[in-house]
Amino acid sequence: MLDRRKFLKQTSVASLGGLMLSKVPMAFGPNASMPSPGVQLFTFFNVIDDDVKGTLKKIAAAGYKNIESAFSKKGGYYGMKPKEFAAMLKDLGLAWKSHHVLGAPFKLPPGAKLPTTPDGKPMTIPPMLNLQDNFQQLVDEAAEGGVEYLVCANTPINTMDDIKGSIKVLNKTAEQAKKAGLEFAYHNHDAEFRAVEGKIPYEIFLAETDPKLVKMELDLAWVVKGGTDPVELFKKHPGRFPLWHVKDLDKERNNILPLGEGTIDFKPIFKAALTAGMKYIFIEHDMPADPFKSIQTSIKNLKQLSVG
């Protein structure tokens, strides 16, 4: 299995007719309802660039309404300019809510190799912009496309100096995002919950980024794998988690599965959605064998995750 963080490490990014669920009652508490379902396009990393429009059509047909874009082997926004990609989504009845960008430059670690394509050839990765060097351009492009949220997908956290540098980049980007009319957020993996020089990076991020400007996109599976209870995070930092990534894990927390096919108990997490300030959820499955089957399974199980 190649999850996002492993992919980002391997590619040096780390060191990347359906069901209308908007009114489905959820375990959110009184008078709360499930937002329209969204999907993170990293789920389709291995297939989307072969047929961008066709892939998006299938996503819409599965019942998804909101899109969070990610990295593309074509570069840019799946080979398009922001306005062009936004127009394609609109024509398909999809809303472009969020976009992932890198926090730091692409550097292939010594001895590391790029993942291979299905035919066994080394994957080619186009130059990718990052917030450390290109934050203003990335903010401007997101604003041009009409995206609501710009999200830092990954940033260096191996040392305390890395963490301090990353916090500086996040705060600086958030200020410019606000000026451009954007919301800004940070997306976690499980590594943020492992101590670095005796401190937990995610706790430092929460404490030292501006809570009014830097929101959090909480990847529920990774936070659970990291040994932290999402509900406790919501209680300590209410309203700071407007974006959620939703996927499941097996009992050993080693393999990613579609929502509802693993062992994570989502009901108490969703019940705390109002405390979290949750606004959008994005189904994600890192490098699945069959991404279309995965999102179909997840949306079916999402509907069934009701108060009951």
UniProtKB/TrEMBL annotation:
Keyword Transferase in annotation: no
GO function term, MF aspect, one: isomerase activity
SUPFAM superfamilies, per database record: Xylose isomerase-like
All copies of domain Xylose isomerase-like TIM barrel, residue ranges: 57-304
Keywords: Isomerase
InterPro entries to which the protein is assigned, alphabetical: IolE/XylAMocC-like, Xyl_isomerase-like_sf, Xyl_isomerase-like_TIM-brl
Pfam families to which the protein is assigned, alphabetical: AP_endonuc_2
Protein's name in the database: Sugar phosphate isomerase
Protein's UniProt keywords contain Acyltransferase: no
Transmembrane segments: none
